[in-house]
Amino acid sequence: MATVKVKQVRSAINRDKSQKATLVALGLKKLNQVVEHESTPQIEGMIRKVLHLVEVEK
């Protein structure tokens, strides 16, 4: 299955609790941190929820 690299580029300060929780669930804790995940519908939905805070490379 394809992988997706997700990089946090904007801070989670002043964001909704659900957006902060989504970043943590993706494994992102710091700015400019990159994590790699399998491209599943669940991960794609999580990325879509915080798309304004992250960069995605497929």
TrEMBL record:
GO terms for biological process: translation. PROSITE patterns: RIBOSOMAL_L30 (PS00634). Transmembrane segments: none annotated. Keywords: Ribonucleoprotein, Ribosomal protein. Residues 4-54 form the Large ribosomal subunit protein uL30-like ferredoxin-like fold domain. GO terms for molecular function: structural constituent of ribosome. GO terms for cellular component: cytosolic large ribosomal subunit. InterPro entries: Ribo_uL30_ferredoxin-like_sf (IPR036919), Ribosomal_uL30_bac-type (IPR005996), Ribosomal_uL30_CS (IPR018038), Ribosomal_uL30_ferredoxin-like (IPR016082). Signal peptide: none annotated. Part of the 50S ribosomal subunit. Belongs to the universal ribosomal protein uL30 family. This is Large ribosomal subunit protein uL30. It comes from Moheibacter sediminis. The gene is rpmD.
